[in-house]
Amino acid sequence: xxxxxxxxxxxxxxxxxxxxxxxxxxxxxxxxxxxxxxxxxxxxxxxxxxxxxxxxxxxxxxxxxxxxxxxxxxxxxxxxxxxxxxxxxxxxxxxxxxxxxxxxxxxxxxxxxxxxxxxxxxxxxxxxxxxxxxxxxxxxxxxxxxxxxxxxxxxxxxxxxxxxxxxxxxxxxxxxxxxxxxxxxxxxxxxxxxxxxxxxxxxxxxxxxxxxxxxxxxxxxxxxxxxxxxxxxxxxxxxxxxxxxxxxxxxxxxxxxxxxxxxxxxxxxxxxxxxxxxxxxxxxxxxxxxxxxxxxxxxxxxxxxxxxxxxxxxxxxxxxxxxxxxxxxxxxxxxxxxxxxxxxxxxxxxxxxxxxxxxxxxxxxxxxxxxxxxxxxxxxxxxxxxxxxxxxxxxxxxxxxxxxxxxxxxxxxxxxxxxxxxxxxxxxxxxxxxxxxxxxxxxxxxxxxxxxxxxxxxxxxxxxxxxxxxxxxxxxxxxxxxxxxxxxxxxxxxxxxxxxxxxxxxxxxxxxxxxxxxxxxxxxxx
Length: 526
What we know:
With 526 residues, this protein is mostly helical. It has helices at 15-26, 66-73, 84-87, 90-103, 133-136, 152-164, 168-204, 208-231, 242-252, 255-258, 265-281, 285-303, 308-323, 327-341, 352-365, 369-385, 392-407, 414-427, 434-449, 453-471, 476-491, 495-506, 512-518; strands at residues 6-9, 51-53, 78-82, 108-112, 142-144.
């Protein structure tokens, strides 16, 4: 019996495609009515796992490692991420040849992400040598993930059908039904939101006694609306396009729709906050700023200038100002907040870390690294002691402190802070998220400054794979990390690999705008 359902072979340049394929396979649940038709018996039942995907780039070696050989021998099938980079990779070719020698070529499935199979122009070839018609003597069937072909979702589904032995048409019909259900859910959300506000309006017409009794129900309705809207935020990973979400948020934010909440200021602030967060996710910073500003005025007039609600609203306005291109106003608001929350014995101490983190971001963007470091060092003990153990802000705080230490030439003090943050995230099962990748990138900088090039390369490669997968090749995090990887490879004498990274992310000749983006450590996402 095979230990692995599938072995994924890929070039390091295609790490994000390989990771996406792995998630698609491992996240797939075999429909109950099809479980008996699969080529094998998934373990556990209904789940396609385990999948082998080598996360380390071993291209500098000329021989397959023992671990790779054992994985190939114990894999029931192979999926190859095919691209121009894969076609040029001797490592991918060796893995394919080894699999064919062990199992034959019938259980190899190809996922095309760029280039052309069996291309007349060698520069466009995407199939590794052992899979090309001229060398293998057979035609390879491939799923094409490019947008103008199958697209990623359909291509992944074809690969899943191949490795599991399930009928593709049945799976495709199932996916079409699921998409239709999601579309109906989105359409229903607008109706649910409208009904929720209508319910609140009805309560406003009740008598005082009835209104008091129904206030709890109104608050429950606000909780429900918040939950519904939260399900449709882009960050929820719901695959609903921005063009469809924005009208829903606009409709929900209309003054007339919010009017029934006029007598419930806390509830109105909560609903506006969730709508403003949606606008930020959709890139509509100005609309978010308008809602946050309205909330600030309401909170200050209702609960007081230094109330918890007002301080939270002031923080939200500051962040929206920064994102909408007004860092001066943002810094002014944050400095006022800092005066309140850093007072000895302040009941707002739990906000100190968040305020310092946001101010650090602003100061760092203005190259005021010494001021940012002074701020973080001065408030570190009090800020972290006010947070519960393992709070995410504590890890972000320490990573920002580490970055400023690097910027002012005190990199030796930064390493332990970053190691602690990475270990804490990994222990919580969050070793593959964007924050952990950022910590690893900073750690790679420390390693490189100490001429520890091997661990530096590993940190940059790991971070780059996550950034490209989550944010794409054009994102500043991805570009900055790719540049640092290329520099480390060059310093280690791996000039060919360094040039490959530069060509892949910056073009040949390199794009000056991207090179300018790459200078300095990557910053957190807005």
